[in-house]
Amino acid sequence: MTSKALTRIAVIVTITALAVPSLFAMDKNSGTPESIPLRTVADYVRAVIMAHRHFYTIHIVNRLGKERIVDTSENWQATHSLPLPVQLLQETSEMAELTAPNVRYHLISQWPINKSNAPANEFERMALKEVQIHPNRPYSSTTGGGEKQLFETVYADVAVTTACVECHNSHPNSPKSDFKVGDVMGGLVISFPVSNQ
């Protein structure tokens, strides 16, 4: 299977799973919809994103790289290699925005290799501080007002493999070079609109 085919499969599965925010539960007795807490919806979306990302990192990037079948590269499109796990997440997020109703997700870090992954606002800065201290406790907030109200949650982004750590520690643009497996490297931001219905 080619890297292009693997990427497409991962993208399709992720987009399909992002239909989660439009799900609702039915009350068994009345048959009427019950709302799902916003944090629970974010947890569902995160579970799908992380399952795909971890599978891609561990079973595709690491395995195919060790077996010298195909390499990963920041310039994956030009070099006909696999995208880095962070790039897979970015690409699927962009595709999700085209298909889902304003569901967005992206990675941020206090030590970004790519400056566009730095926290963009006070909420993201505060969230990174909090998930660094309490990695098992997401940081959430509802922002905006009226029809532009968004629910945002930041989850700790933890280094799951030595490949993640080695890439960040050796990258010439990395402001931090002493990450270890299990360290919080940043945060995963998930946001979606709050329905007023």
Main sheet attributes: strand count, strand direction, barrel closure: 4 strands, antiparallel
Order of helices and strands: HEEHEHEHEHEEHE
Averaged pLDDT, please?
Answer: 80
Strand content: 15-25%
Question: Approximately how much helix is present in the residues?
Answer: 40-55%
Radius of gyration, in Å, reads 18 Å
Distance between the termini: 44 Å
Flag low-confidence runs.
9-27
Number of domains: 1
What is the overall shape? globular
Query: Helix/strand/pairing class, anyone?
Result: alpha+beta
Strand order across the largest sheet: 5-8-7-6
Separate helix tally: 6
Give the tally of β-strands. Answer: 8
SSE order and pairing:
Blueprint: H1 3-17, E1 25-26, E2 33-34, H2 38-66, E3 72-73, H3 76-79, E4 82-83, H4 85-99, E5 104-108, H5 122-133, E6 139-143, E7 150-158, H6 162-170, E8 184-193
Parallel strand pairs: 3-4
Antiparallel strand pairs: 1-2, 5-8, 6-7, 7-8
Structural notes for this entry:
With 197 residues, the chain is of the alpha+beta class. The chain has one domain (3-193). The protein has helices at 3-17, 38-66, 76-79, 85-99, 122-133, 162-170; strands spanning 25-26, 33-34, 72-73, 82-83, 104-108, 139-143, 150-158, 184-193. The strands form 3 sheets. It has a 4-stranded antiparallel sheet with strand order 5-8-7-6. β3, α3 (76-79) and β4 (82-83) form a beta-alpha-beta unit. It is globular. The protein starts with a helix and ends with a strand. Residues 9-27 have low confidence and may be disordered.
